[in-house]
Amino acid sequence: MPRKLLRRRGVRPQAEKRALRPLGQFNSLFNLRASRPKKSLGQHFLMHPRIAERIVKSAELPKDATVLEIGPGRGILTKALLARAKKVIAVEMDAALVAELKETFAKEIAGGRLELVHADIRDWVGHNLNSRYSVKDGYHVIANIPYYLTGEIIRMFLEARNQPRSMMLLVQKEVAERVARSGKPYSAKASKGKESLLSLSVKAYGTPRYEFTVPRGAFRPAPKVDSAVLAIRDISRRNFKNAKEEKHFFELLHAGFAHKRKLVRNNLIRASVISAKALQAAGIPESARAEDLPLETWLSAGRAEFR
Prior knowledge:
Blueprint: H1 3-8, H2 16-19, H3 25-30, E1 45-46, H4 49-59, E2 66-70, H5 76-82, E3 87-92, H6 95-104, H7 106-110, E4 114-118, H8 121-131, H9 133-136, E5 140-144, H10 150-158, E6 166-172, H11 173-180, H12 197-205, E7 207-214, E8 219-220, E9 227-233, H13 243-256, H14 264-271, H15 276-282, H16 295-304
Parallel strand pairs: 2-3, 2-5, 3-4, 5-6
Antiparallel strand pairs: 1-8, 6-9, 7-9
């Protein structure tokens, strides 16, 4: 709201921030002592329902969708998901937030549309993705995840035996740019289109897309940088004929990026992960670094070893 309009309506300038705060039940939850964000958990709660609704709309969920939400926090995104999905499984590590969510969504939990799990997602995934009936027939991951867990969470789901059909994640803006817009020069912040271990890992399994930017002010507490919604669609293992080829591909990637400033051919030869014949067949330029090579070249190098 403009300052002039605020003054005209009798709102003092110093009260402007209060006038812009999110309204409703979620705003009152913020004042509870138990629900204060924990820095140790990297918590930055999304506080704007319209952004949550836009995230869910961008996900293009089918009517019978089962959604796995990581770290529901105060439930802004959870509420939007319940308006679209058939079932939501929300995994929350913070015990205080779990207690709040049980009260906020008591009706949805009782009706079986929301399953609230108190656990660390890293501990929960391994067994539950392969055994739970609700996710066996396909599921979607939609979440506002802690920045420090971004790479680990993405790899954990993409490499899982039971992969999600799609992922829609709120991540640091620069990370979303590097993953979805790598491979073509467009901005200095994204390392001029250079690939990374994470960007290539994502592209090996799916199609990444930068959906939209979410300003830091949409969160509480506000992080130091802006965020963005990163979508990963069409997730599968179609680039690999078998588990052996998949494993070898990632051995090559890790070896190639082990020393990013050195020439990639030297890195691969030093690590003994590819033969001289396969290296030649892959057509890797002698002066190239790992970040210069597109996904197709890495896949070609991996397949050349099995010809």
